Amino acid sequence: MNKKNISIIISVFIAALVVSILGYILVTQRLEHYNESRLDMPEDITLYSKVDKKIIKEIEKLPNVKEIGLKSDEKSIKLDDNIFILEEYDEVYFSMQKNILKEGKFPRETNEILISEKTSKELNLNIGDTRLLEKGNRLLKGKVISPTRGYNKNEMFEKSVSHEYKISGIYRTKNSNNLQRIYSKIDNSNNQYYPCIKLEKLTKVYETKSDIKDIVGKNNYIIVNESLLRVFSIDENGFNISRFLINMILVPAILIIIFTMMIKNIFNIWGIYKIREFSMYKSIGATNFQIYKLLFKEIFKISVIPLILGQICGLLIIKAVFMNLFSLQQKLVVGEIFEFNFNWSSIILINCILFAILIISTTLPTRVISKIEILDGLKENIKSKKFKNKKSENVFKELEINNRKLLRPALVVTIVGLVLTGSIICINTIDKYNRERYSYDRDFNIKLRYNTENNIYPEIFSKIKEEFQPEKSFISISKRYFVDTSTIEYSNEFNDVGFNPGFDGIFYDKEKNLSHATLIGLDDENFFKLTNNKNDVVLINLVQKDSKKFYKDAEFIRYLDEEINKIDVKLLEDFNTQKIKITKKIEHFIENQEQIDLYDIVLVTSIDNFQEIMKESRREFERNDMEFPILYYNIDMKFKEENVREYADRIRYIMENHIDGNEKYSVRDNILDNKMEELNNQSIYFLETLIVVTVILLNIANSYSSTNLMFFNRRREIGILLSNGMYDKDLERMFIKNMIKDIITSIISSIVIIIVCIGSLIMTLPYLDIVKYMEMIPYALIIGMFLIITISSYIIYYFAMKKVTGEDIINILVNY
């Protein structure tokens, strides 16, 4: 292997490796987001409630409506003693879902069904098989439950009718813990359906939504495919082309710019080494374009193997990381592991990025070579503007200036490497800052959330407390409201501080004069620590003085005026106000309560009184023909760590056998949460480590190429100096002195750039306390990374220098 090619091979391999990994994670995930948005909701617009066919025909006449598919209500069915969800569509809607079909065809007749890949494997079903499907209702404790509700082993199935169906196709399974779905064709016997609307121009989705609202009325909620709109950067103001281009092109552009900048110097130096060969071609009439083609052909021959190996290694690494990190996260959440499939579109995109890097990097040495005279090129006497030697009366000054000029590209790359490494660490510190800012340990390790029929208090909580005897517990239920800030009298202490303008639109809305209030219902045990009257509503009259402080370190001041005795709240912005009377005010927190959001007015009452207040809130929803939202009761409990997993599983078993109808519950424990957080952190550390290692390796490759080229071009001067009696130690001392100066310059420059870049970013983050942030920066890690980059550059420089200064003087002059 030609030693002059080593730097190119290493650089191309690293570029291919990193671009493959980052390209798959950062770029192709956008394609996954699009596919996910289409799988979850193939249509652009649908309705919350069914409408008559007559109304559907009116919608179909709208100018921006392309087509409308029909969907019926979901039904419960039974196949081979297994419960499924039956969804019935027409042919138009099936055509919108063409991406989910794996084998066969969509149902064309009402007696045909489409089953999932998972169902096919588990029940050994194949296309063309005929099976008896039982339609009916799922019953839990005698109550009909929703077809989409998770399976409960205590439920019963009440059959109403049976039909034979033929399996026409198999669709790709989307892993989840939910029941599998079976698709069939609607029989057109009904008069009402859910219209699934596909638009001609997605950019006009909100205009079409307004037209549909005029047809169906305000009481039928219109559902827009919000995730799809986010993919294409469409909002109520229309198509944001600049944001779309940034989202689509930014990552590939950054990869091309960074890697071109990191390896162009290596390609440039490689071209200088080939100057004599290409000057020979010019001497026999070759054009610059022919030399460019020859140069690119040779670079491609050198690069093709590391290019392929880098991509293979990159994709294998991302697969290994996916299987060991991301799939474990998925398994913890839904109990199944995602399949990992290489996306051909991502591989094409990765190769496009790599070829763009190669083409741009190859163009640079061609431009240098084209400007060198043929005779100078044959003599390897480089006189281009970039490499032409400068003269000085002091021979040592001349040598220093010309050496630094040749080393400048490597020093620039070193500065870029230091800036990237330092910036990554600083940005990671911001992420760590955000996690710690909102961290608040309530010292509980199991949380049970449960929504009951009509939001009545769950007596099962008392039985669970009695059976498991937690060290402490906290039962609560809450509802959030809007508050008109113009109607509130704030305390003098808060008026002196005021709302932080940086949080406008996050915790309050200045333009609409809105902030939030939260009503919390507590169990008697905790509420009676505040008051003895169940009908009391207690105001926790506190707010953070400095909104930038961490919650756990913050100082709290009086929020509202002491004379305030009621709060006017609204369930939604356009709802009527509801008065909540305040009977007591306190200026301390409730023991074990959850964290208070910034500028949130917190009202606490008993669960009994909470339910009474909710009755009025429910009436407001009914007046607007809207369904009252589900409210969850929460019980937080603390147990010994060794019992947490066992108790959590037992509580799940109890709840599974307790719930009625369409009630839902969830049980979380801190062990599972900690595992998820650990896996998330490992994913972040993997990407950060990958980028840092890449920067270090590319810096080493650049230093190797630039340093060797510098000494290659300075051999004659070095030989002359040594032949005239200069000691090699003095010459080496001068070289090392200059190198140390350059290292110090690169470190200072990179620190200044990092301060400017990160400082500019911090200025856009209104919540960030600069002093606290500075305390959290891992300076030892930054210094360590800086030392690795600079010491490796120094070592390469030192041995390249010793290789020349230690050579016989005659050999230096003869071989030049």
Helix-strand blueprint:
Layout: H1 6-40, E1 45-47, E2 51-52, H2 53-60, E3 65-71, E4 75-79, E5 82-89, H3 91-96, E6 101-104, E7 112-116, H4 117-122, E8 130-140, E9 143-145, E10 156-171, E11 181-185, E12 192-199, H5 205-216, E13 222-224, H6 226-231, E14 234-235, E15 238-239, H7 241-273, H8 275-283, H9 288-334, H10 344-370, H11 374-378, H12 395-437, E16 446-451, H13 460-468, E17 472-484, H14 492-497, E18 514-522, H15 524-527, E19 537-540, E20 543-544, E21 556-557, E22 566-570, E23 578-581, E24 584-586, E25 601-606, H16 607-623, E26 633-638, H17 644-658, E27 664-669, H18 670-713, H19 715-723, H20 728-763, H21 770-776, H22 779-805, H23 809-815
Parallel strand pairs: 5-11, 7-10, 18-25, 19-24
Antiparallel strand pairs: 1-12, 1-13, 2-12, 3-12, 4-5, 4-8, 6-10, 7-11, 8-9, 8-10, 14-15, 16-26, 16-27, 17-18, 17-22, 17-26, 19-25, 20-21, 22-23
Helix pairs in contact: 1-7, 1-9, 1-10, 1-18, 7-10, 7-18, 9-10, 9-18, 12-18, 12-20, 12-22, 18-22, 19-23, 20-22
β-strand percent reads 15-25%
**Oligomer type:** single chain
The number of domains is 4
Stretches with pLDDT under 50, minimum 5 residues: 327-338
Q: Could you give the distance between the termini?
A: 22 Å
